[in-house]
Amino acid sequence: MAQISESSIFPAGEFQLDDTLKGIPGGTKPFPLSQIGQRGWNVLREDLPLPLMVLKRSVLHHNIRVMQSFLEEHGLSLAPHAKTHMSPQLVQLQLSSGAWAITAGNVSQVQVFRRFGVQRIILANQLVGRQNVRYVVEDLNADRGFEFFCLVDSIAGVRHLASLAEQFGLSRPIKVLLEGGYWGGRTGCRTLQQACEVVAELRNARRWLTLAGVEGFEGSISRDNPAEALQQVNHYLGFLKELLAALNPEDFAGVEEVIFSAGGSAYFDVVAKSFSALEFPVPKRIVLRSGCYLTHDSRMYAESAKEMLARGLRGPQLQAALEVWSYVQSIPEKGSAILSMGKRDCPYDYYLPTPLRRYRSDEDTLDLSACRITRLNDQHAYMSFPESLDLRFGDRIASGISHPCTAFDKWRFIPIVNDEYDVVDGLITHF
Amino acid sequence: MAQISESSIFPAGEFQLDDTLKGIPGGTKPFPLSQIGQRGWNVLREDLPLPLMVLKRSVLHHNIRVMQSFLEEHGLSLAPHAKTHMSPQLVQLQLSSGAWAITAGNVSQVQVFRRFGVQRIILANQLVGRQNVRYVVEDLNADRGFEFFCLVDSIAGVRHLASLAEQFGLSRPIKVLLEGGYWGGRTGCRTLQQACEVVAELRNARRWLTLAGVEGFEGSISRDNPAEALQQVNHYLGFLKELLAALNPEDFAGVEEVIFSAGGSAYFDVVAKSFSALEFPVPKRIVLRSGCYLTHDSRMYAESAKEMLARGLRGPQLQAALEVWSYVQSIPEKGSAILSMGKRDCPYDYYLPTPLRRYRSDEDTLDLSACRITRLNDQHAYMSFPESLDLRFGDRIASGISHPCTAFDKWRFIPIVNDEYDVVDGLITHF
Prior knowledge:
The structure is a homodimer.
Chain A: E1 16-17, E2 31-32, E3 52-56, H1 57-74, E4 77-78, H2 88-96, E5 102-104, H3 107-115, E6 120-126, H4 130-142, E7 147-152, H5 155-167, E8 174-179, H6 192-204, E9 209-215, H7 226-246, E10 258-262, H8 268-275, E11 284-288, H9 300-310, E12 322-333, E13 336-339, E14 354-359, E15 365-367, E16 372-376, E17 381-384, E18 396-400, H10 405-408, E19 413-417, E20 423-428
Parallel strand pairs in A: 3-19, 4-11, 5-6, 6-7, 7-8, 8-9, 9-10, 10-11
Antiparallel strand pairs in A: 1-2, 3-12, 12-13, 12-18, 13-17, 14-15, 14-18, 16-17, 19-20
Helix pairs in contact in A: 7-8
């Protein structure tokens, strides 16, 4: 297991924080992020203004260890999807904790990760468009140490990519992963025949493109019915294996190992099991791309984790590392509180935030599991609570979030806290 | 009518753009925003990578003129809600176009606007929390020219504010607006009695707080049934007028004029009409706080505008100034395209984006009114289209957005384009 520094995850905190950043106290003069631990700020003492999203350091490191153990046990590589957090510091932490590569969702994200020194990137998407292809070509030409993968799922896509690669003078082939999809799903070839046609087209484009593996994403399968979803996921993973089996080892002549990749954050156990007995007569690397394991959450992935547990996943479990804090700013009717956070501060795409605990100035706390957030406006949350609950104007509410990807993108600055809520470090994000 | 510069809305473009910002071509070396018009970039020519959100300059200025005419005709003041865009350049544009004040949604936003020199701010929210109150107190003490308003709707809130104001040594009273609410709604006193109790408490806190007016927000009333919503809005505006009438002119002894404020972007016509014959024996200023008029949209406020038209609003209408551009990155099944934009790029809280036009490299365009975006993932959009429609991998799709507030917050950099899609200027945002 790679060494993890518990003391700091920020290697070069030159980024200047000032009070135009949400979460920084008004009047704070600019200072480098690397010095944030020396400010003496504590969230419980109200040293930082709310709303505020905090990242719990011990949970972050716990989750990294849980994932490391899982990967080691199953002989898997990880290319964490860093679109989740878009934070160079977390990218560094993931790489230093053994991640094999970093996954990006589009070329803008590749640009960010490249700026922060990442040398192996999977663009888990089609590479499309004049500027996007130009940039990748120029970067591949300029840096022989840069290893880059992207997806293809159509003849038209292969031609588009090859044509622009030629136009921009690509000096070595782009590695592409053949994407398998499922009916009614997102991108990816739906049938073996489609996939074989794409591979045939890749042979024509061999000068510009090298087939490097097979890829799929099971995470967009609807989980409304968990049992049905699991069946679909297994069926889909089976199709990806069929895809690989249908390919000729000679199609992979351009690479030293074949990449076989799937696995978001909801089914990495299923992917590991499904891919464990994979037979293919070429050295291969099985790559998971989970992004949300790092912080986990209090609802969407918390439910996935329960399902994994029910499926027999053993060992320590992932825990929720993110909390959004806000104030009770009004109790306009009995049992109804308005909180000072909204769509600008927390995710609302799958579930609304989960109230966890109430804090008051004398630091007495109260469990809020009987409370529920029922609606968000841009800057407000509506929380229903039992009338017997001791809640007042100015109380602080810590809420768990659902879906880390749409939590991180609401914050440019995120303080990292220890278990006493001292601010020990901080993140910046690049959305 | 105030003078509007059509040539530039950016007064001090020292902000450095580089390719870690979404929308800036990969490999671009840092350059000041003020020079963006000299890059010669054109969106139709694919000089910028997609996804990209563009702001159309002519429409922006058209909308400003439409709102100015409306305000002048009805004798109203505008404190535009700048939480919508959080862009200092648009704040400057609004102020130079006659806005009386700027509205903020929380203290973090106040900090941003203050940093960019705004001297009159309405915090359309309760002011709550140690750091938030401290900052406002210190800023009021430090700058006699800073005029600040916030809301109160409870005795507890008044006490909280007065207590912290005293603790932090406030040197002149904070101006507060009494907030009226409606049953089942957000913040605000539900009854005249509650409101009068708050005002009585304000008398006890006279040293720290000055009553400066009455405020409400009708925009959070559900518009599922437009006719019912209109009735509720009128009833609520009537309650706000009752509130004002119930107050004693002596309660306003601390101010030269009484502020009476309501009006988001969906009902400013109704507010103007309802408040037109307002009688109160003290000089008064009626303040609208619309934020979304500036860019309007292609769905949510487009529907509101139709309702305003039906209610008899005359003159030029607001138009949609924002478009999000993306690529067709896969056509995995007949009639189904996957676009290279997602929740990270466009609003999804009320409606999904509206496909407008398709562009191809030879610049032929196609109307997409028969297409529909049915789902968004973090980085993908699912678009259904008639099978007869000529659509290919790599085509560019311009989509309209719904709800400007959740469009702006997805972009740190937004190019401003002329009608030929030349990039003539650019915005930065401070979310």
